[in-house]
Amino acid sequence: MEVFPPLGQDVLFFWIPIIVKQQMRFSLIDQITELKAGESITAAKNLTLAEEYLQDHFPGFPVMPGVLMVEALVQTSAWLMRYSEDFRYSTVLLDEAKAVKFNSFVKPGDTITIQSKLQKKNDESTWTFKASGNVGETNVITAKLILKQFNLADEYPSIASGDAVQTESIKTLFNVLYPQAESAKS
Description:
Blueprint: H1 12-19, E1 31-36, E2 40-46, H2 66-84, E3 91-102, E4 111-121, E5 126-135, E6 138-150, H3 152-155, H4 162-177, H5 179-185
Antiparallel strand pairs: 1-2, 2-4, 3-6, 4-5, 5-6
Helix pairs in contact: 4-5
């Protein structure tokens, strides 16, 4: 028995974030600089004082929260997963974060360069990545991440039309983050 009634296109944007609870609603990646399908990705995030969360973390000593550093690694790895699978799945979520090590702070004015490498495909839907972030030559974070991909229709058939909406939104953002992909298609 389905929990959700059939939904029209106009209310999909209400239900999708509720169902996909873990997915961030903002991007912690400013640019994808290198991408090798099925292998690796490099991305960058420029931290500025304009980041709203820095007002409270911490007053007088603003630094990027550790959980957002992890999320930047997750988002970078998710882009590799999506691109490698030709955007077949609408949703990619963190399943597990292991061996997370914070080595230094990321401060306003810093650019964190994030690298993620596919370690293995556990199965079709679950992949393991080794990811790290550096500011210049200084390593600030490392982690082993396990990500899971799926379509909304697989879990919630009543909102299957949300897959197309979500996928188009993801592709649009991807083309902003990695415009080389769009020009390669032309």
